Every structure is written in C-alpha cells, then in structure tokens.
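Dear colleagues,

I hope this message finds you well. In preparation for our joint manuscript, I am sending the Chorismate synthase (Teratosphaeria nubilosa) sequence together with its predicted structure, so that both groups work from identical material. I would be grateful if you could confirm receipt.
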Amino acid sequence: MSTFGQYFKVTTYGESHGKSVGAIVDGCPPGLQLSEVDIQPQMTRRRPGQSALTTPRNEKDKVEIQSGTELGLTLGTPIGLRVMNEDQRPHDYKEGAQKAAFDGEPVKKAKNINDFPRPSHADWTYLEKYGVKASSGGGRSSARETIGRVAAGAIADKYLKEAYGVEIVAFTSSVGQTKLFEPTKDHPTAATNPEFLKLINDITRDEVDRFLPVRCPDDKVTKRMEEVIAEFRDRKDSIGGIVTCVIRNCPSGLGEPCFDKLEATLAHAMLSIPATKGFEIGSGFGGCEVPGSVHNDPFIKSDSNIPGRPRLTTKTNNSGGIQGGISNGAHIYFNVAFKPPATIGQAQQTVGYDEEEGVLEAKGRHDPCVIPRAVPIVESMAALVVIDAVLAQSARASARSMLPHLKGLTVPVKETHTTGIPNGHA
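The corresponding structure tokens are as follows:
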C-alpha cells in the first residue's frame, strides 16, 4: 500500500507527471512548532536540477501545508502536504522507440515508447498487477513519489531533534567502484576504521552539502566520483552506488524483539525507496568474515551525563547500535545500495507488449546516478522509522509508569535509562 508507519502514519500520493504529489501525516504529536520553513530545506536538497549531474527537470518542489497546523503549531490532526508538479513533459514518452530491422528489412517506427515495457522499470510489473499503468513516466514507481516521504520525514526529524536530540545524517560513500573507505586487511569493514568512526561521530548535513554535487565528504574522493558520474552521463549510461547513514543520540530500548526489530524496520523503510538493491547495518556483510572474538562489542561505563542516555555503552560498535532488534543507545549506522537508474539514452533491444522485438532509446530527463539526491531520502525514511519506534516505546513506558513498582523484579521508571524515553518524558 502507500502508507508507512503504525503510530506516525505517512500516506504518500501522486504520479510523476500528475498535477501534484505529496503526503498526509497522521499521528504527529500536537504542540510542535511547524511551518513550511521547517520542511523546505530537505525538499530543496532532494529536488532535481541541482547540477549537471542530475536530471534537468526544473521543479521548485515548494511544499505547502494544507492542514493539521494553526498559528504555527501542530494540532495532532492529519497534516496535509502538497507539492505541485510544474515541469511535466509527458510527450517525452511518445517517442524514442522503433521496431527492430532484421535481415535487411526496413525499420518501422513504433507509435511511442509506451509500446514497450522499459527494461528494469516497473512498467511490466505494474501492468501485470493492476491491468493498467501510467502512460507517462513511472507513475507511483517514479522517484517523484519520494517527495511525500521527504516532507513527512522533515516533520519527524524536527520532532526527534527537539524532543530527544536525535541527529540523522547521510552521505555518499560509493559511486560505482569508487569508494570513500576501501576495505583493507586491518579494516575489512568500515566499522573498525577509526577514520570512518570519527566521520559518523562528527559529520553534519551542512558539511555533507559542502561536497556538492556528489555529497561525499572527502575532497579527492568526491572529485573522482563526480568524474565517474559525468563519464557515464556522457555515454548516455548510468551508474549506482551506496549511501551511508548515521543516527546519533537515538534513545535506547527502541524496536521489538521479533518481527519488528529496529534493523528490520529500517531495512523495510530503506528497501521501499525506489532503485534500492541492498541494506546492511553495522559491520554488515564484512562482519561475517571475522571471528566472534573480534566482532563482539564489550560493554563499558558511559561517560555521558545527559539525562535519559544509557548508563552503559559499548567499546566497539560492530552491532551498529542495535542488539536483539532493540537500540542500545550507540550510533546506529547502515548502508543502502542503489542500482544504476534504469532509464538510459542508449539504444536497447527488447520486446514490446505486442511480443515483437524492437529497439528502445529513452528520451526524457533522468539522473545518470541517483546517489546525490538519495541522501535526504534516506535521512527522511530513517526519521520515520525512529519516530514510529519512539511513539510506540513512549506509550509502553507511560503505561508501565502507572503500575506500582515490584521491588526486585523491575527497575523503577524514575531510575531507568532503558525505556527509550528520557527521564521526565515517560
């Protein structure tokens, strides 16, 4: 369906070449100061046309709050968010296809690109599922669907920052085979690399954006990545990569023991983003190559005096801030892999809906690499996961606080640091 979350529910709507796209947010706590000014920065970071390395589609992506606020405060009622599409060009999808020529037979022009399911797009699968599909662009499978996610995520992000001091920052860590942190013998995974650990501890969104247009926080590496993307763009081709994200100051105790483990909901969220192909958290797949004696994260006393932060932390963080599906208060960090964009300008031999072979040469305006613009999308989905988990744990902690303390069996709420809710918030 088009709804994400249980307590902070986000329903997105709209197609890539429709009148508008947006979202409805249901479950936002009342009393949060909120205006378009709080949402627009993330929208601007996601918008097309940011550089020569992104799609030239000219959209301002100005968000409008339609409901759910009054006098700059959230009311606790559904928040309607709308962004008007201003630069639709559906005619791009009425050309660029031709029937194949075999054995010297003349090439016959096809009616339009819609005579073919585009390779690695959702045209065929949507048609199989619904019996009908959008005639221009990807419809709901288009990256413009993510506008609603980013708008809603900005609201979640603001609440988490103000209520818990949560910071969520993502950045580009690879494009094609160019990587920010190359695996080494000593550090087969970035989880043990001191430079990586320092980066995720300190990096901010403003710093990431200093490295536009690629958003890889290293002068030399970002330059190489820029050259790689430009090379594939000039070939009328595309390339994929990886976005790394860190969640700092996440309350402990978030997530459920079995089917809704925090890393499972993060994976669900990330793999719902268009073009994603992989997810790994903490040491990830690299952690499978080392023994348990190396991978285990010993506990140490925390030096944090901030109310609500855990009394214990871990010396290392191969777990990525989550153990048993529940956050432990350490940094949560993960990687999201994105495939090369499916729309390319090169001629591709394929088969049309009429089962006849043909050649498809896509027109339209498309990103040669989605990674730079995916950064705020990953941040937004992370915020939606965390706020949903926070609201669930807050309800649990509040209900628990109503019960008499059973001495020797449980830790009093006023003393605990493991409810996921800072003292005074339960």
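For the figure legend, we might mention the following. Residues 106-110, 414-420 have pLDDT under 50 and may be disordered. Residues 81 and 244 are 27 Å apart (CA to CA).

With kind regards,
E.M.
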